[in-house]
Amino acid sequence: MTDAVRTQGLYKRFGHQTAVGGVDLVVPRGSFTGLVGPNGAGKTTTLSMITGLLRPDGGRIEIDGHDVWADPVSVKARIGVLPEGLRLFERLSGRELLMYGGQLRGIPIDEVGRRADELLRVMDLVEAQDKLVVDYSTGMRKKIGLAAALLHNPGVLFLDEPFEGVDPVSANTLIEVLRRYTASGSTVVFSSHVMDLVERLCDWVSVMNRGLVVAQGPLDDVRRGRTLNEAFLDLVGARGNGEEGLSWLGSPA
Ligand SMILES: Nc1ncnc2c1ncn2[C@@H]1O[C@H](COP(=O)(O)OP(=O)(O)OP(=O)(O)O)[C@@H](O)[C@H]1O
């Protein structure tokens, strides 16, 4: 069976800096995949290229066997994206955002209305549906962003740090929706720094460091008897910068 996502030699430079230095990422279909790595590892740059938001300098990307940059329209119909920074249409209400997004996707308006109502209910946003998105809290923005990403029932969903700044109640709602989504055979790829969460949710993990994939596979193969946090620290090299310097910090005045 074709993988949901496959990249070969994916490469991106910004000036002299190589942000992504030849990434071969594999995401099996139907998996709940965690993309982890320290700050600056290249996760957002990789996800931006995979989702057609940033043009690669080299390499290939296939989603469900379709080349992202040669066949962008058919790929974009198959994917949902919750990007970093949540660039949303701020001056629309939550409900208007869903209605607009659904119509842009070419879904008949009655069907968009039905799906929007269900998503607003599941995300616990019914009371806030007529409020402008600009006035939403961080958690509400993540939830309406996820609703917008799911509206056209994509086969693969990409989420850049979906749980950042989200309270435990909203996080549980997001998790329930995502679990239901993958249970039906769809694929989720999300980046996160929260190892406990990745360990709890994911069956497949890709670890990035300094622009490369340094480990990837089923969760248990990457962990190899350790916690994911221990495996992560071993793989990326615990840097231990905190042991020297800052001698002035905490000294009495
Ligand atoms: N638009 C840009 N211009 C210049 N450098 C960039 C740009 N975007 C990313 N970079 C650099 O590329 C590298 C990878 O960044 P990226 O945001 O992909 O990392 P990340 O793994 O998502 O990090 P974090 O976990 O902190 O979000 C970093 O060194 C970053 O400074």
Automatic annotation (TrEMBL):
InterPro entries named among the record's database cross-references: AAA+_ATPase (IPR003593), ABC_transporter-like_ATP-bd (IPR003439), ABC_transporter_ATP-binding (IPR050763), P-loop_NTPase (IPR027417)
The UniProt record lists the ABC transporter domain at: 5-235
Chief location of this protein? membrane
Q: Name one GO molecular function term.
A: ATP binding
Q: Where does this one sit in the cell? A: Cell membrane
Protein name, per record = ABC-2 type transport system ATP-binding protein
Q: Name one Pfam family in it.
A: ABC_tran
| Membrane topology designation | Peripheral membrane protein
CC per GO annotation: plasma membrane
